[in-house]
């Protein structure tokens, strides 16, 4: 039996998220159907994590097992011919049978993009959160440094998050300007549901002067989701890379 690792890129706008769900079409469902068309057998993808409805990915990693022996090009070119234009297999690799896309992962890189301009951009609206107000980016960067390290992120997760432990390690949080776009790059060992989006929502409120920079360490100490900032809209978030 072969274990195949896929790196998948997708625009999540029209999907209910990565994971198969009863209320709509998911990215996982579409990719599994395409794999079935190439392999002639049903397979189950095991991913490095989940993305919510509207969230995008440049580097979602998933693996599956198969008894078929096909060249790697069949899983890339063959599967891509059966996928819609908003999903593509970008990389294929046969890996050891003990590889697991989720449990073997050592870290992830998420990028959240803010579009800062007085007028909305039709080309940017699918991939960023449009804000018309000026942000204090220096205050945001200072506050972002408070997330780095191993902390209890219970204040920065969805109320529906089912994770047993709320402690997570964040390696870095960096702000990067690119014209009218402000990217917030978050790298860490793992993340709770909506964690990055709540972190961004909190940083935006700091940038708008609606809460002090000191709120980040306070929230990490005291917990409590209602005290943190809003959950940033999904379209600004993109899973950039998973490393092993």
Number of helices: 5
Global morphology = globular
Low-confidence parts? none
Cα-to-Cα separation, first versus last residue: 22 Å
Question: The CATH topology of the largest domain, please?
Answer: Alpha-Beta Plaits
Query: Helix fraction?
Result: 10-25%
Rg (C-alpha, Å)? 19 Å
By secondary-structure content and strand pairing, the structural class works out as alpha+beta
CATH architecture verdict of the largest domain = 2-Layer Sandwich
Quaternary structure type: single chain
The named CATH superfamily of the largest domain: Pseudouridine synthase I, catalytic domain, C-terminal subdomain
Q: What percent strand?
A: 25-35%
Number of beta-strand segments: 10
Order of helices and strands: EHEEHEEEHEEEHHE
Can you describe this structure?
The chain has 244 residues and is α+β, with helices and mostly antiparallel strands. It has two domains: 2-95, Pseudouridine synthase I, catalytic domain, N-terminal subdomain (Alpha-Beta Plaits); 107-243, Pseudouridine synthase I, catalytic domain, C-terminal subdomain (Alpha-Beta Plaits), CATH 3.30.70.660. It contains five helices and ten strands; from the N terminus they run E-H-E-E-H-E-E-E-H-E-E-E-H-H-E. Strand 8 (167-178) and strand 9 (181-188) form a beta hairpin. The radius of gyration is 19 Å and the shape is globular.
